[in-house]
Amino acid sequence: MSTKTLPFCILLLLVCGALFPIGCTVSSDDDPAPEAEVAAPEEFLETEEITDDVPADNETSVSNQEELAKVLDEAETILADEAEADAEAVDSTEIPETSHLHLKWIHDANVDGPETYEHHHEYLAKSKNKARLILTNNGQTALPANGWALYFRIGPFMYLDEEAFAEANETVKASFTGIQGRYKIEPTDGFKPLKTDESLTIPIVGMRQIMLNSDPPVGFYLVSIDEDGNEALVGDIAIEYGPIKGFTPSPEPIGARADAKSRYNRHAQYNGESEPQVALPAPRNVDLDDSKKIDLAQLAAVKSSDDLKFESDALTTLLDKHRQANESDDAVAVSLTIDPELAKEQYKLTVNDEGVSLSGGSAAGVFYGIQTVDQLLDRFGDHLPYITIDDQPQFSYRGLMVDICRHFFGPKTLKKVIDQMAHYKMNVLQLRLNEDEAWRIEIPSLPELTDIGSKRGHVTHDADGKVVQLPVVLNDGGTGPSGYLTREDYIDLLKYAKARHIEVIPEIAVPGHARSAIQALLDKPGYLMIDPEDKSEHLSPQGFDDNILNPAMEGVYPFLEEVFTAVNEMHDAAGVPLAHVHIGGDEAPEEAWTLSPAIAAMGYENVDPKVDPEKSIAVHRKIRDDFSQKLYEIIDKTSSGTVHVGSWHENAPFVTARMADGKAYITEWDFDGDATYARLKTGQPTVLCNPRTSYFDMAYENNPTERGHFWSGFTDTKDVYEYRPLALTDEPLPQKERDLIQGIQSQLWTETINTPEMLEWYMLPRLLPFAERAWNPDVSDEDIAAQWSAFASFVGNYALPRLEREGVHFRIPKPGAIEEDGKLKAIVPYPGLEIRYTTDGSEPVVESPLFDPQDPPAYDTKIKLRAFTTEGRGSSSVPVEE
Q1: Active site at which residues (predicted)?
Q2: Which CATH number applies to 285-391?
Q3: What is this structure's pTM?
Q4: Is there a smaller number of Cβ atoms within 10 Å at the N or the C end of the chain?
Q5: pLDDT tens across 423-479, in order?
Q6: In 516-561, at which residue ranges do the beta strands (DSSP E only) sit?
Q7: How many CB atoms lie within 10 A of CB 858?
């Protein structure tokens, strides 16, 4: 009960006490319930003695009349005070502190998509979720009837159903608005102030089912609004999330919900006693004799040529962790050499009674051989077995793309990423440096890009209406993470990666995903990049309608020239000439520019896509093609002229001429293998980026405890291992098309990732099977089934313990479990992890009983399980019955 309602309750008691003295009963012919005495509060009782003089029927005693008059006077005062308080609450513009406001999100149900559909995206887009937001005021200040708004963000690739939202909220008296990737709820006429201890329920109907703990609304914050409509941040509002429920099975590749039983069945074929593979990636040719060995104490100092100094120092540092170099005459030789007869990334390693010999076709090949030696030492400790390895990758491009824009990750985090890539012999890091949400690379001649474009907050304009920062998005709350790579940061990163034989490819996304640049330069003379008169209607998948450069605006081309000039200069300063650059080219809606007067002034026809969609698309594509050719000219002008330009597959139609010159390639993220094959047949060099197995921002499994996206399905470590890049179609690829596949690349988009630990958790251990498949892509289903146990044994026994020693926050897989003959059977996908359990429904901890498959406990539906590392880090808890 609200404390504001107490005066009215007291009033009722006062009136009843006056009209019906103690001892009387009140009944009603309309209420057949037993008669009940009405007692006034003790402080209002008459102290005079009650006599036997009872008034006649329909007659009130004088004393009671006087008491009634007194009570009514008090009642009038109370009602007046109450009315005045209500009026003050209605008229008040004071906003309560957000620490006194509390939000709770309650998921009510998921609504299935259509029974028939052509693609699972159609099913997801037409499914819905129903939930409630409950806003409670725990403070003494009422949330007023106007002068405020609540901002938030729905999970990535989800939207509010505006029509259903309005219908569900007819009585709430609040409006809903979508604003460039965010949502805003604001009171309208008739909204009643939210007083102390009162709650307001706001029904929410969203598009797409809610399935994961990163799907519900996030980033809630409150703003105040003055009479002129100016908004000021009040603060973030804490939110409590209820459980996700109402799950229904979805089409492939979404699939059924993962639980203890499905995990057990998925990994039951694993042989925990399998011999681990020799290294990761698995060498192509190995002859191992572990009955013979060389003790590290026997090894002399490393000898190499000057051009292998970094590699020589790396191997020396590695060996010195286990021994001091032997200076005696009988010391065993350790030599590093470059052999021009070998392929560039090929290496040969020999360990025998003559010593340790490592040769490579280049410094990169030698470096990869050292990583193999490092892994052998993880396994064998203070000695090396006699071994001969002849190894090289099948793909020349073994990449990872990291988005540092949605959330910023600086040099320290990126160097940790590079270290992991290098250890597993990956060689390309594509850095997404700009996005709608932020610009993350310093361009000295355009300081606005980082002074404005790298910052996020609610108030985006100053008093003069100039842009000062970008709006908050994602799960930022009222203030967003800021940050960018300085010129010095980027140069240092290039050097660090080069030493480890990793090429950093900068990605400058245009013409779409360019909102941060557009807004940062909006007030800079000569750099306007959108047409203010453009009436075209389009919306990006992330909810933006003003994020595409307009090729008709003259500010576009000096912007591009300044940016690519600066990027090229930084590469030169690092001693790493720019060989590849990526221009994005993805998710630029074909409705863009179609009704832009500036476009018409260039000689292109304005065609309304609602009137003539086919002609409108044709005009858009012509504009896009002309823009692309100008862009390539700028890239050549600002660099050596031989730079290879990468772009996502949506840009494929606009890069054919450059393809013919051998200076372009496509990063292909299409689901459809047949479509990819069709593009390969046109002669396009391609890097495969299959979302089903290569997007590490996808959730590991279909369970509400997981984080991430699920639009391309769920991707665990075994899914990545089972990826067959060359199996695009049911038929084997012809050699010509196989040769056009440069390699594969994994992607780490960061909409749902906002800490370095979380980035590592999404990336690892999935990066390990990806590195395996990038090195050894030409495998059959039979090979995969036969080799998985050896791979899993290596990961569990050596790779995961190494990651833990290095302080990497990798994801620990959840156990699987079933009941068999009344006993619990449990499994994890990797050896080296232990399972602990409880039988009372509590969460298992490192001190909980250890599961012993030889002496399992009796099965009980209350059992919960967790997998733990030897250092005590645990997985999410798993109930045996979900």
Answers
A1: 587 (proton donor)
A2: 3.30.379.10
A3: 0.88
A4: N
A5: 999 999 999 999 999 999 999 999 999 999 999 988 888 888 898 898 887 767 767
A6: none
A7: 10
